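Quick start: what a row looks like.
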Amino acid sequence: MLAGRRVVVVTNNDSAYEVAAAVASAGAEVTLVDARTDSRIAVPASIRKLGGRTVAAAHGHMRVEAVMLDDGTALPSDCVLVSGGWTPTVHLFCQARGKLAWDENRAAFLPGDPVEGITVAGAAAGAVALSEVFAGAAKAATGQAGTSTPRSTGTEATGAIMPIWPKAGAKGRVWIDYQNDVTTKDVELAARENFVSVEHLKRYTTLGMATDQGKTSNLAGLALMADITGRTVPEVGTTTYRPPFTPVPLTSFAGALGGELMSPVRRLPLENVHRASGAVFQEYGGWLRPAHYGRVDADADAVIQDEARRARQSVALFDGSTLGKIEVMGRQAAEFVDFIYYNTMSTLKPGRCRYGFMLSENGVVFDDGILVRLDEHRFIVSCSSSHVAAVHARLEEWRQDRFGRDAVYIHNATADMATLTVSGPKSKALVAALELGVSLDDGELPHMAVAAGRFGGDAVRVARVSFTGDRSYEISIRADRAEGLWAAMREAGKAFDAVTMGLEAMTLLRAEKGYIVIGKDTDGTTMPHDLGVDGPRQKRGTDYVGRRSLFTEVATAERRLQFVGLKVADGEASLATGAHAIARVEGTVRSQGFVTSSYQSPTLQRPIALALIECGASRHGETIDLQHLGMLRRATITGPCAFDPTGERLNA
């Protein structure tokens, strides 16, 4: 893929010629501008070569449209490629306390006096020709200069370079560090402020502190400081290279063009089964999941409404295999989950579940989910589907930081197990028909409890937890055995008018109950007390991630956005997701929150909405104005739960 069609290649050395030829062969119109006048490297006839000149400025708005040469020539261009020379990768040599020496011929710092036990060869030693590389390798291997080392049969790179350094007093912006936006004027200011030491220059301007750690910018900055202060480049010196140093492969920059090779789509174990059942798939958090079931050309909204309505009336089958299933084990597992969660979890009894929040270090809600305690030293962290990798990494980070490997072990079993959900008023009868060997009596398997059973000889875990607000059961089984269980559920469901339900209907049911979706009904500032969960913040005395941040000035501000429901007048349409609640103050309009979720509820037969509104918890019953794309609406602030607020259906 070409970066441009009218490419100007600017250079002061031989290495750019190969690039210019490659770009031209790919179909671009190429002009090669070489600052030198004595280069004898041949170029293809399709390339226009201009010697003894260089680029003085680039012109254009939001993109390059032309470049101006130092002799006043204007060249139309949509891409400029620049090669100013090469800086060897000397980091490891320096980290071994090696000293660098300035090489005028290469216009670069090269490894200087030898360091015991280390031999530097190849490009790291400044070699540019293949023959030089072979000779350096032979010397490194034998300790002596070789006389019969292999030579290249092709054209040898000469490494000839004419240094071109930025000059003080240049007009306009002359960029030195492209990542940290350091210009020549920044270096000049550092010199005027007496930050002339190379270490001070680095910190005062942030020169060389970007992800390339100065590979593209340091030398130009050092040369400019040398020019300003009347010193040579080696007198200015270099900064200290600190470990570790990990080069970024050039191929990684093209990774985003690799499609699934860069970001593989995660697939359900039962994807083909769902496709055979007419599932319409969409991507959710990197997972390919059924949005709803039915023909692709069907009215999606009508299908989703029907799935949600039938789920409330009878029973729904839902594939929840993407939910995180991360096992935390060890003698300090209870202490560990207490530290990870906002809620106290160590008081949870074996065989029971508890809903909880994880917070980031700044107190913001990071994820929510169910924690299952299987026995004294073993827990299962159930987290949001799109957050599994992040939660797993987070658990490992804190385990390494505060707990030894012999105290806590973590295993991500998300891909190992499929989780199939049965939800609705008839869910108990359907699960009973599966004969899992588990008592479904409320006394033995109450809401928020878990039990072990078997299906067809395979172990299953039955958790009575609900994401819909109705009685629900999550049945987890080995992923490679899930198809048989799903088929049995479908067959047993025929007697109960069961419906297979996609994620869109599930999300609607959650919204009816006021169950949040992290990242949808929360933003990057939402803390647990904004969601009405303030108990741990007020009562917990032990430490946990994010605790300190919950008592900062920002966290205790009066006008925080709080989680509420919104109700519109009878007969009105649903609110737009993203609509802003507005307040008029002294002739101005400002936002005081926004709608996070909005649906037409088939159960309540009216629109429902969730929102984050300033001081919303104390404003229930107040009618507010909302604005979206120039349209004004009105709605009344309510509690988030619009359906079955007493929770009776959980035990129905």
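That is the whole record. Residues 388-402 form the longest helix (15 residues). The two ends are 61 Å apart (CA to CA).
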